[in-house]
Amino acid sequence: MYRINIESLVRNKLYICKDFHIQPSEIDRMWYFEYEQILKEINAHIKEQEKQNEEQQKQYGNLQKNMNPSSMMNNMKMPSMPKMPTISMPKL
């Protein structure tokens, strides 16, 4: 027969119920091989999400480097101040 780690079973049931909104009674009704297959699919799904998150973090990091305020200020030309008009006074 199967040897089942009860702590692991309860922890997995908790995560499945919490994250995927499945009632514990639904998990209890499953055959054990069905439960194991669902766990494999959930783990594959989580790994795929982690890869996507890492890619997004890399893209965000690149954008953040490009949006550095000091480099943006260096690239901007400062507007020159208008020159004061010169007025020559007539000599009397």
Describe what this molecule looks like in 3D.
It is a single chain. The chain is mainly α. The chain has a domain at 6-66. The chain is built from four helices and no strands. The longest helix is centred in the middle third of the chain and has 35 residues, at 32-66. The model has no long low-confidence stretch (mean pLDDT 83).
Main β-sheet description: none
Q: Which series of helices and strands comes N to C?
A: HHHH
N/C terminus separation = 120 Å
Helix count from the secondary structure assignment: 4
Strand content: under 5%
Binned, the helix content reads 55-70%
- Oligomeric state of shown chains: single chain
Structural class by SSE content: mainly alpha
List segments where confidence is low: pLDDT < 50 over at least 5 consecutive residues. Answer: none
Specify Rg, calculated over alpha carbons.
Answer: 33 Å
Kindly state the number of beta strands.
0
Instruction: Give the overall form.
Output: rod-shaped
Mean pLDDT: 83
Quick synopsis:
This protein is mostly helical and 92 residues long. It contains 4 helices and no strands.
SSE layout:
Elements: H1 6-20, H2 24-29, H3 32-66, H4 69-75
Characteristics:
92 residues, mainly alpha, 4 helices
